[in-house]
Amino acid sequence: QVQLVQSGPEVKKPGASVKVSCKTSGYTFSMYGISWLRQAPGQGLEWMGWLSVYNGNRNYADKFQGRVTLTTDTSTNTAYMELRRLTPDDTAVYYCARDGLAYADNWNWFDPWGHGTLVTVSS
Amino acid sequence: QSVLTQPPSVSAAPGQKVTISCSGSTSNIGSNYVSWYQQIPGTAPKLLIYDNDKRPSGMSDRFSGSKSGTSAALGITGLQTGDEADYYCVSWDSSLSAVLFGGGTRLTVL
Fold first, then answer.
1. How many whole angstroms separate alpha carbon B82 and alpha carbon A83?
2. A75-93: pLDDT as tens digits
């Protein structure tokens, strides 16, 4: 079955960077896009950006433009999200989620989701 | 503040039906598909409905989706205590070129 397994929790100081991984299995990695989202404690879900593994297209939420980079490693079927210049407001659970539709030129829907990675930013 | 508007909470008794609304605009719900997700506290969200009204394989038919104009709705029938969760609507916004979430609705099964 399709699985997205994320890296473990991180604790970072303000101003640092974090890179979260999302190792996939159970499907052809190159056929689907991957989105990254986050959820601050007690808050709703927030979309950060999307990357098509198929054609390399990327789309970032304005809020994170210039501070986030989405990449993939097709040799290990793994997606990565790097967020720079962290502040305490970046404390959240970060999720990766696969597209529901293969060979899409844009995001369609999220299915399935990774289990989440808690990133804590504190001095 | 979310661009897609959901009621913060809804409640109903076991066995009853509940409807969760999601209101947007012409640039998102009015011209793009809506999907719905269930998030049980402490776990990752799960897809319930995609393309406005389609259920993924294996999803219970107690869950249904609809869309009219710039609003969408999620219906849940035969409520069970296991349905207690947060529910989110999501749509693409063509003006913002971004994925938008509703603020989420907490369902309580009394």
1. 35
2. 999 999 999 999 999 999 9
